[in-house]
Each structure stands twice: as C-alpha cells, then as structure tokens.
Amino acid sequence: MRDLSIVFMGTPGFAVGILKKLLEEGKNVVGVVTAPDKPAGRGRQHRASAVKEYALSKNVKILQPTNLKDEHFLNDLKALNANLQIVVAFRMLPKVVWEMPEYGTFNLHASLLPEYRGAAPINWAIINKESVTGVTTFFIDEKIDTGNIIQSKEIEIAKDETFGTLHDKLMKLGSSLVIDTVTLIEKGDLKAHVQPENSGCKEAPKLNSENTRIDWSQNAETIDAFIRGLSPYPGSWTALQNNGEELKVKIFRSRYENEEHNAEIGLLIVDKKTVKVAVKNGFIHIEEIQLPGKRKMGISDLLNGYTFRSGSKMS
Questions:
Q1: Distance (Å, rounded) from C-alpha 34 to C-alpha 62?
Q2: Would the pTM of this model clear 0.90, i.e. be above it?
Q3: Interior CA angle at 108 toward 99 and 228, to 5°?
Q4: pLDDT of the chain along its 315 residues, tens only?
Q5: What sign has the CA pseudo-torsion 62, 58, 7, 113?
Q6: Cα–Cα distance between 249 and 238 in angstroms, integer?
Q7: Across-strand partners of 40?
Q8: CA pair distance 33, 289, nearest whole angstrom
Q9: CA dist., res. 260 & res. 254, Å (int)
Q10: Cα–Cα dist 209/212, whole Å
Q11: In order of start, what are the domains of the chain with their CATH numbers?
C-alpha cells in the first residue's frame, strides 16, 4: 500500500462534501488550496470560501493564491510534500502545479465525461432534460476536462429534479467515487483510459446573464426544465412588463401544463391565487419569484402585496 499525502483544491460547497469525506475516512490531507477571500453582500465584507471555512474548522493548512504560477505559492505548495492532488470545483491549473505530485493530480467532475465538459455540468444536464448523469474522476492535463478517465458512477435524474437536489446527490456520489479512486491509487491498481473523442458531446459552459434568461417562445416542458436547472442557483430570470415599467425578476420554482390556447406568448394570466405565463403549447405557473431588491417569495405572498395590471407580460 502506498502512503498518500494529499493536497485538496476546491472552493464551493460542492467541494466541501468531498473534503469532509476524505477526512472522515482518515485520509492524510496535508493542505487545502482555495480561492482568496472575496467581498460579498451589501457591506462588501470579505468572505471566505466554503472550503476555507471547513478547512479552518479542521485545522488543515490553507493556501489562497491569486496567481497559481506565483513563486511563493509554488514554494509553499512544494513544502507540503504531497504525492497526490485532488481537485473539485476549483480552476484550471498550470502544468507546473498538476505535474508536481508523484502520483498525479486528479479531478472530480459532475458529469459522465466526455459529456458536459465545462463549468456548469449539473445545471445543463437538467436544462437539457437528460435522464441520467453522474460523476467522473480523471487525471488533469493541459485542456479542460479532457484527461484520462479513472472511474465514473451514474445516477438517474428525477423528473422534478432541481439544480439544488441534483447537486446534493452528486456531491454524495462524488464523495464515494473520490474515496474509491484514492483507494485504487493507494493499492497501485489504477488503470486510466483515454477519453473518447466525440465532437457531438454536449458542453456545459459557464452561466451568465445571457444564457440564464428564460426564452418564453420555447414549449412549456422546456421552460420548466430551464427554471429547475437554475434553481436555486443562480436563478433563471426574465423581464416583467407591468404598469408601464420593466423589472428584472428571477423565477425559482414553477410547474407547467400543456393546453391549447390563443393567448399571446408571454402574457400573464392572474387570479387571486395564481400567476401563469402563456407559452407555445400551454402555461407556466409561477410558484416562487424574486423581485428586484426583495427576498424570494411564494406566489401567494407576492399577490398579497403586488398588483398586476391587465396586459402585463413576461419577455
């Protein structure tokens, strides 16, 4: 059995679940590399990453480089004497970093590679109405999510799945896969294989203000999947046109119904208890929404204090 000394690299909550599992299993994590503290909230106070907060609670040494090629950081990383590096939801590493440990650097990715390479695989799998996804461990190379595959595990995507629910399922599944991969490396039994080259694979690009906007010209089922795939983070958004003003609102929960109608696409149909949007083959019922500067609220709470005028619409 090989005696492993591990450096863990990650930043968000998803990575915390994997780091927690490594420590619970008694793996020798000699250091954590995570993002620098960033200003957040209205007060713009500097906030530590989720991984840093957890590592502090476990007294694990923390490195927070702004530049991964910085000489001081590289010296500090070498001084940890790790022979394995594990990366989960971090950033692209320079060759000088991923080549450093004796047994290499492997990444946990939340998809069944080569499908959904990129920054947001969980979101896009739901948006694209996939029935199955999973997690993959692979050795890092010069490109993004293209290295030799070590292992993978798959999971079904429920019909009502959201980004939040699938995130938690994949974090648990990924924790198990990382432990399995570490065990293979400890035993020296690992046999990685080259990823298949398939130009038809779906990508998982970074989410931004353009690709998180709801397109009301799509059918009801597609819009519903889009909203679920972005809930609770970062949230899908749309422009609400009401009473002569336009507001950018986020929608976090909805349901759909297929029904023939003659209403204009995007038109809001409002009664005392419901708000629904007319789409190509039915309606999207809005169940949780957020107005600018307000908290998320259920639609009944919104209707208690907000008035929709006749002819209001989403666009």
A1: 7
A2: yes
A3: 145
A4: 999 999 999 999 999 999 999 999 999 999 999 999 987 666 667 789 999 999 999 999 999 999 999 999 999 999 999 999 999 999 999 999 999 999 999 999 999 999 999 999 999 999 999 999 999 999 999 989 999 999 999 999 999 999 999 999 999 999 999 999 999 999 998 899 999 877 689 999 999 999 999 999 999 999 999 999 999 999 999 999 998 999 999 999 999 999 999 999 999 999 989 999 999 999 999 999 999 999 999 999 999 989 999 999 999
A5: negative
A6: 6
A7: 45
A8: 36
A9: 19
A10: 6
A11: 6-187 (3.40.50.170), 220-314 (3.10.25.10)
Q: What is the CA radius of gyration of the chain?
A: 23
Residue 158, both tokens: 């429920």
**CA dist., res. 314 & res. 240, Å (int):** 5
Q: Is the peptide bond before 232 cis (omega within 30 degrees of 0)?
A: yes
Q: Which among 200, 207, 219, 153 has a CA at the least distance from the CA of 180?
A: 153
DSSP letter for 90, please. -
